[in-house]
Amino acid sequence: MARPAHDVKDLALAPSGRTRIDWAEAQMPVVRVIRERFAKEEPLRGLRLAACLHVTSETANLVRALAAGGASVRLCASNPLSTQDDVAASLVEHHGISVFAIKGEDNETYYRHILAALEGGAHLTMDDGADLVSVLHARRRDLLPEILGGTEETTTGVIRLTSMAKDGVLAYPIVAVNDAMTKHFFDNRYGTGQSTLDGIVRATNLLIAGLKVVIAGYGWCGRGVALRARGLGAQVVVTEVDAVKALEAALDGHQVHPMEEAARIGDIFVTLTGNKHVLRREHFQAMKDGAVIANSGHFNVEIDIPALESLAGGRKERLRDYVDQYTLADGRHINLLGEGRLINLAAAEGHPAAVMDMSFANQALAAEYLSREGKKLKREVHPVPPAIDREIARLKLAAMGIRIDALTAEQQAYLSTWHEGT
After folding, report:
1. CA pseudo-torsion sign 154, 159, 164, 170
2. Sorting pLDDT into bands at 50, 70 and 90, what band is 418?
3. Which sign, positive or negative, has the C-alpha torsion 44, 48, 53, 58?
4. Residue 321: what are its φ and ψ, rounded to 5°?
5. Cβ partners under 8 Å of residue 273, min gap 6
6. What percent of the chain has pLDDT over 70?
7. In terms of CB atoms within 10 Å, which end of the chain has fewer, N or C?
8. Smallest Cα–Cα separation from 50: which of 126, 112, 110?
9. pLDDT range class, residue 419, cuts 50, 70, 90
């Protein structure tokens, strides 16, 4: 098999990557079932698919399913620090996939790789944060007429794409995979919850028990991190701008404070908002000596790193892999993890394969849906069809050996009429 076009760190890493991909596959039964069906039916035959995703062992199994369905896939990274270099090498060497991703790539390389993924055009796009869609609209508008549709994996990306649709500039329909119930209820909550704490512990080796962990944002990702932090014995503090979410956090048993107050008492800070400069100059100035700050939202702009660098005046030291210590003028130290990038992927391995099984099942089935229906859809952000959500839940339960009840004919009739009451 001739090697496809690629730019990866080292093809000699491929055997290690294959082992990692196989390990993840064993925990992704739903994607495996979809891949087996795709191999028989080839619903994506003849379609070019450009994907900008975290290049991990779980993503590799999604890409294998898409290729089995007949798609010609070109893959690039959706974050400079999230690539597993051995997985990237294996996808090229063992599976014939064009991959453009190197862990730690600089900003110029990152965008060059996105353009490489788009080389030759695409009929479908698959995004994690909407960078590929943004580059398409800004720099490769000549490719837009061929595109049937795209999918988006993250809350951050859905926000960006919804804004584009609102402004009337989105050139093709997008399916918001992030908003599927079998994605955000599980991936965002249980996946982000576990993998964020995993990344923090791997980077720092801190004992979480007894520490005050400040969580900025109580969406599904924030809920998950709060759940896991409390399970490890942390005192959880939540900051929010949404009154309903703040109320929920309080009733879940967490302290709720504005960040100006939380900054004074926190030991570890985690941002998960999808917004900009959630941690900024006035917060750094109030933090304890030794405070640890990390981001588990999609982009590193959640932490105002230029402000932190300004306060430190160049007094920065790499203490451990993924730990940069900034020394402020008064001698206090603030420790930034993973350069403010996604800590669960920068310092750990991202979400467990078992939860990504459902997320990537949504990606695969949404791609199949768009291959059929994309031309009929408005240029907006669309939900995942409920039938896809239900099918993924059914397949996951079956793989777990769990059976559930079905409505009786009498119950169905009762729910479909208003005549019978008390």
Report:
1. positive
2. confident
3. positive
4. -55, 125
5. 216, 217, 219, 222, 297, 302
6. 100
7. C
8. 126
9. confident
Nearest to 111, CA basis, from 97, 88, 96, 131: 131
Question: 164 with 307, same domain?
Answer: no
> Looking at the domain assignment, is residue 243 inside a domain?
yes
CA pair distance 50, 43, nearest whole angstrom: 16
d(CA 185, CA 192): 11
**What pLDDT, on the 0 to 100 scale, is given for residue 393?**
96
List, as one string, the DSSP characters of 261-284: HHHHH-SEEEE-SSSS-SB-HHHH
In this structure, which amino acid lies at residue 183? K
**Is 55 within 8 Å of 84 (Cβ atoms)?**
yes
* Burial call 369-390: b when 16+ CB within 10 Å, e when fewer: bbbeebeebeeebbebeeebbe
Whole-model pTM: value is 0.91
Triad 251, 252, 258: Cα angle to 5°: 75
Same domain, 156 and 234: no
Of the candidates 96, 90, 20, the residue with the CA atom closest to the CA atom of residue 58: 20
Domain count, the chain: 2
The domain in which residue 48 lies consists of 11-183+351-399
pLDDT tens-digit profile of 78-87? 999 999 999 9
pLDDT in tens, 34-46: 999 999 999 999 9
| Structure tokens belonging to residue 99 | 């991959």
